[in-house]
Amino acid sequence: MGNRFSSAKNSIAECDNCGFRYKLKVLKKLVVKTKQINMLVCPECWNPDHPQLQLGMYPVDDPQGVRDPRPDRSYLVSGLLEDGFSGEGSRVIQWGWGPVGGGYTPIDGGTPNYLVTQTAVGTVTIELDAIPIPPVGAVVETATAASVVQAILTALPASAETATAGDSVSAVLIPGTLDSIDPDTGITSSTITLTNSNLTFEGTVAYVWYGGKGVYWHTTGKKYFEITNDANVDACLLCGLGDASADFQAAGNYVGNYISGTIFGRSWGIWANRSAGLITYGDDTATFPTGTPITTGGRINVAVDFDAGKMWFGVDGAWINSSDPATGTSPIYTFTPNAALYAAISVQVGGQIATMNFGASAFTDTVPSGFSSWNTSISTVVKWDIGSVVAGMSLTNGNLTAQRTTPVTYPDWYGVTSVNAHSTGKRYFEITQDVYSARSMFAGVCQSFLDAGMQPYVGAVNYLGQNGAGWGVLFNDPAYVTGVYTYNAGTGTFYTTPPLLSNGGVVGVAVDFAAGKMWFSLNGTWLNSGNPAAGTNPTYTFTANTALLAGMCFYDNVAQATANFGATPFSGTVPSGFSSWNVIS
Which residue among 37, 132, 211, 255 has its CA within the 20 to 30 Å range from the CA of 59? Predict the structure, then answer.
């Protein structure tokens, strides 16, 4: 017997819900509470039968009452609150016009704000001693036995401008950054032993100076730290500050030692446990201040005002030469304001032990008024070091853009170096040519701006790569229109490809410190068909784990370039296995 109806494969129909036309075969039956309701709907209108529509169709045993209850007595019932205003119970959700809360009348800004709550995962004490109140969002730090935490202020005392000791503030705690002696600055067990989370420093070589410096640097603010003389052996402890290129791991390099033309860099220090009397050193020049030398358990005090370019040394809480960091008077040494400086320490004999306190534990002596611990707001973003800049150079754009501002005086090159050096890992950074002005620019790395052509001095062609302590690529000299030159130890190597850079062009620098290899690229093309990821065809090789600064130099005025150490996305592709120069290990 034949079918009563046709196949309807080409029949047109309308959706019973939306009215749009579809093929009849496309429409589906709608089911509600397990029943078909004689509606055919399109795929867009169709929904499966929802279980919530089936409430009441089946028996449910779900009693709500509790036998012999013990209710939460902290619950506030509806009625007047403690402040006399009407409330609706302590667990009623706050509602109102946006923003919720802020006042009791429309003039005050809206509905009462009952959303504020207090909780605790620990405690923090912020002592305010008649100082201006920081604004909301400011960072205040306090020390605990194990770490330093930062408190982001969320509420302030009622006082409008100043607060005194004992006033309370509300804060959110976040982890802080702690400084310590950097084990990657060439320190070896044959010369120095580091313990106590790299805060305790012990010499292991008899009567030869060796030292180290901190992981992090500062460029702004007023900072303070202490060094405790744990074991006084033959009075051989010299501590203070050093710049980014200061190197205390070569035999005989003590804090305060500086010889022009070497790779030591600049440093300033105090020999505080010398029984014959105190000595301070700056640029290898000794002075003999007044004060009593420390013995075992004694402390060296270091205070630095970076914005003023001043530093002070003290012993056991007494500032030498009647100086006073709090008032800014009689600094022991001055330096270029906002230059990057590191904490530094050196010892001359095995068994001499000292411990750095950057603020992770309570200081023994009084911190000068207006100063904060060295661990406060530690710098972790790499930029050009204003301390390496001389008259005739300017830094802008957060000290990432460098420009020469004086005319050429042959044969002077003007340069700049980074606030930090690396000696381990695989690192990458870029230099973008912003303004080209008739002559050339170098980009690369060096051990110190003092010896690698980063400071002009009369009678020398002091470019980056002029000697064995610098490596650079000369990327836009019009005298070499068919290619580029790289330089090290005064010897150039010519590459016909890639071509010179124009404005907007990018130099890439990749350094593998463990392998002692470096590569230069122009607009993403590596010189000499190099491949940093594979470690092949390096532009140069060098002694593995040598500490190197990023650097560049300019020959002509108006010339300008911008560094990217990794704070923003790179123009080129970072070689596999490499990290930005901005990563501090």
Answer: 37
Structural domain contains residue 69: no
DSSP 112: -
d(CA 55, CA 48): 16
What is the pLDDT, as a whole number, of residue 2? 65
Tokens read off for 426: 């695989």
For tokens 């402040």, name the residue: 83
Within-domain flag for 61: no
Domain holding 508, by residue range, is 386-580
- Phi/psi of residue 428, nearest 5 degrees: -145, 140
Place of tokens 């790499």: 382
Check whether 153 has a pLDDT greater than 50: no
Residue type at 544 in one-letter notation: A
The pTM score is 0.67
Please tell me whether residues 343 and 457 are part of one structural domain: no
Instruction: Return the number of other C-beta atoms located less than 10 Å from residue 129's C-beta.
Output: 11
Please give the structure tokens belonging to residue 404: 């020469």
Question: Is 280 domain-assigned?
Answer: yes
pLDDT band per the 50, 70, 90 thresholds, residue 498: low
Q: What whole-number distance in Å separates Cα of residue 24 and Cα of residue 209? A: 94
One domain, residues 539 and 516:
yes
Across residues 25-31, what is the average pLDDT?
90
Report, as an integer, the average pLDDT of 282-298.
Answer: 88
Per-residue DSSP letter, 320: G
